[in-house]
Amino acid sequence: MISAALAVSMAVSMMPATAVSAFAEGTSTNTAETTTVTGKNSTESEAKTYGYCGAENQKESVQWKYDESTKVLTIFGNGPMADYNGIADTDVGTDNDLRPWKPYLDQITEVHIEEGVTAIGNSAFRGMKALKKANIPASIRDLGDYIFRHDEVLEEVIWAEGFEAAETTDVDSNQNANQNVYTGKYLPTSMFDYCYELGKGKELTKWLPKSFEGVGCAAVRGTQFTVDFDHWSNLKYIGAYAFSTMPNLESFTLTDDIKFGLRKNSQVPEGASNAFQGSGLKKLIVRTEKLPYAIVRDCENLSVIDLGNNPTSIRDSEFKGTAIEEIDIPKSVTKVDAWAFANCRNLKRVTFYGETALHHVPFPACGIETFIIEEGAKITSDDSNPFREQPTGSYPAVTSLKNVEILGTLNTSRTDMTTETLWKNMFSPSEQLKEVTVSDANLQYVKAETFPKMENLKVVGDDATFEASLAGCTNLKTVDLTGCKKIASYAAGCFGDGMNDSTVIYVNDASAIPGSDTGISNRHGIVMVVKGGTVNTDKTGFDSVTKAGCTAKWYENADFTGEAVTTPEIGKTYYAKWEVTPVAATMDVTTSKSDYLVNTPVDVNIAIAPGTDMYKILNGSVALTYGDEVEKVELNGKELTEKEYTVQELAQKMELTSRSSNIKATLNVTYKKAGKFDFDVALKDAKGAQICADGTQVVVAEEAAELTPATKLYTLTVKNADVTIKNGDEEIKAEKNDKGELIAKVPEKADVTVTYTSQSDAVAFDQWTITTDETLDVDVKNNPLKFQMPAGGMTIEAMTKDASIEEDEPNILGTAAVVGTAAAGTAILAWQGYQLGTELYLKTALPAGTAIPTNRAELALLVWNHAGKPAPAAVLPADATDTQKAIAWAVENDLLKAAKDNGETYVDTDSVSRVEVIRVWNKAQEK
């Protein structure tokens, strides 16, 4: 073949020049070094299929040819292509379109650009209705604007490996005076604008060369790409409309590290971003003070907006037309402008936390059902009704309210109307509005004309003063005043004629009612003194008041004398007497496998739900039942030579590695002969009475069955955390099962990292719970936790705690622990079991939010306050403190001792155990 080619070359070299020209006529070349195209014989009406397309002053440096059989347009040469400016979408294919391949715009299916071409001109391949494939070679150093705009069937664009993006300047297409200019390595303006088929099944950052640091104005608008913004580490610029109308977007986090291009117009002099307008974006996280204007307007799939505590304002139409279901307006926001949430028809819940001004009408055409102003928040409106329709008929007023909670303030800033009128304008149109919660200061605005359909009213604050009558509230079913320390004007006609006779008024303590008459004026309604109970307005009668772990009996007098009442009657007052409802402890004893071998430790797992028997368990004993077939029983590597131990005795043999709401333990039992054997465990109280018991059957084989070779892969289960696994350079991915757990098969000594990330500011990491058949030396307090996979399966779970609770007691073992099956530990046998159990019991028994007392003064104040601060019989100094009164009263009622056994006097700061707290609290409830 080489010889033949050489012979042809020699023959041509000896031909006359005229013959050479004839040979080349009508033939195009692929490189600049070959003979220049001279054209072909044709009439002027016949379109050319080749020619020049180089930039001004170097037109012949780049050429084009079109193959009518393959429908491929080829661009080749050495230099930049020409720019084809002045082509609007309506100019494609007209006389204004100067592209030489214009006759083939609706035929070309592929554009092939060869190496050597250094620039692609503006609008070069714009509006090509049949184009499906194109490439961009590594020689390109400049990309023009609108290159592939409106190529609506373009499916594939191949970038050369190692493509290096050049710096360019974005003036957002139509800006003047070079304002909002950004210079950097970004995808040029409208390069793939409205390429509706491009990007299917592709993630943008994996398709786009890594040298690009952003996306210019409308560069990928309307394409099908997904975008992993969280891992686009070099993203610096997003032009106006950059990702607009892209359907497959998930989440974007807005930070100060990213600059946004803005488009100006007469209505928005500052300029609007519209970066995600009309896209399928589902979640926006804001971590900056100022949002680019209209960044997510009309995103119909945007259901989550997390503002954090960052933006200072929400501008007009900012979130218009989104699908958000709830919004928290943080303390940082000082102003919400007109139409900010217009047409957010899925918006059901709005909560304010700070001092915020509402301008004009921010919420037209919203479906708000719950409107909340938190305690301390101050909301002012400069409109007569921020919920009214806008404009007439286009966006209807908000009339969907069902629940209003105003614990802060809601006022008007107008001088021509009152706050009372503002409330009436906002709330009276909602006929479904039945649940109303207000602070004591806002009680003055609660009237029948403002809340005509109100059924349940709840008041929170120090002093509930009824300045206006609730007469006319004919739908009123309940008035919850349990959150008020004092109730003024209670019996002065505010619950008079015109109010629903069956209305139930709940108060926490009779002392909150002024005067000696605890009835209601004109004997309307029913009064229930709940004494620490919780009101549930979904239930009726005495069943509407509950208290965790307790059962109430109701009496018509505060002394609880006479017969208990089962059904309340109109015009009467009833008092709750709470009695602790015992919940029996339960036990479950199991083995880890179905059969074992002689002289092989058996894992006997014990799980206990202590109920209200914790204090009995702590003072009781554990009894084990088994026969002489057992060689030995161990707990954490310590042999148990007896069959019954007190909890305190076993505490000395205990090591703890985890916390749990239930109590768990693992015993290691070794059998010396084969057979089927029962192993039973029982808990007894201090008197020997059984609290709970359970057992399991253990099957022990004489000899091991034939074993298969080890696979060297062990199951790792991770709960409530993320995991990264590396075996050398190989990364092993964990799969999620239907329980949400991460499962992986892992070789021994692979590097494992587990990390807990809190999803809420209210929850914090506590420590890891680890179960494994092998020994593992780790610090269970470390997050993230790193270790090497042991030669056995393991389960690890992140335990959490309330973020507001600080560690007030040191771990008795420190944070480092050796974790294994034998070290999984039984909390019924140790100090930390005592800590967990008593804490669990007290959190259930004490009123919600009450701190567990740690000293004598705190314990006395707890029971004294709960009893209504009764005066002690002893004569105390006139300036006696509440603590002195509380201790005196507690001593008089045999709740606390007056002196120690040796005659020494107690002091306020003497510590009290949690068992003592339980004893005193339970005894106080019987008073």
Describe the structure.
This protein has 927 residues and is mainly β. 10% of the residues lie in helices and 29% in strands. An eleven-stranded mixed beta sheet has the order 19-21-23-25-27-28-29-30-31-35-34, with no helix packed on it. It has a six-stranded mixed beta sheet with strand order 1-2-3-5-7-9, with no helix packed on it. A five-stranded parallel beta sheet has the order 18-20-22-24-26. The longest helix is centred in the C-terminal third of the chain and has 15 residues, at 831-845. The N and C termini lie far apart (113 Å). The model is unreliable at 10-45, 515-522, 655-660, 704-711 and 808-834 (pLDDT under 50).
Q: How would you classify the quaternary structure?
A: single chain
Reading side by side through the largest sheet, how are the strands ordered?
19-21-23-25-27-28-29-30-31-35-34
Number of separate strands: 56
Q: Specify the structural class.
A: mainly beta
Distance from first to last alpha carbon: 113 Å
User: Helical residue percent?
Assistant: under 10%
Tertiary shape:
flat
How does the major sheet shape up? Answer: 11 strands, mixed
Low-confidence stretches: 10-45, 515-522, 655-660, 704-711, 808-834
The number of helical elements comes to 10
